[in-house]
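Problem: given the chain below (141 residues), write out its structure.
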Amino acid sequence: MASKLLLLQSKACQASKFVAKHGTAYYKQLLEQNKQYIQEPPTVEKCSELSNKLFYTRLASIPGRSEAFWKEFDYLKNLWKNRQELKIEDAGIAALFGLECFAWFCAGEIVDKPCCCLVIFTKFTATKIDDNGTNYSPYLH
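Solution.
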């Protein structure tokens, strides 16, 4: 187990050195390739304006999305009414779709757990001791 830990530590050190050596060049290259997406001037106000534009654009798209949802729902109701004419291929595709949705749900739960535990661990370990000698955590207040 100790040898695996040392191997992991050396790999992390190598990765850190690689990023330190090539990170700036990659950053500049990435900005150069995507300069058409950069808003000038890059200020907090501009970011706030873009955030609001994105939010209200998404909000404005809700009626179109709702209409598409109800069309899909009507199609499914029609399929259910005529389920005697339903082919086995269609039922198989529907079952695979349901299975895929469930798998993505499970994957989301699995990915979420370490992040949730990390946040809780960070909140309870990031305590400070004030002048009176009592523990104080800024995250718990």
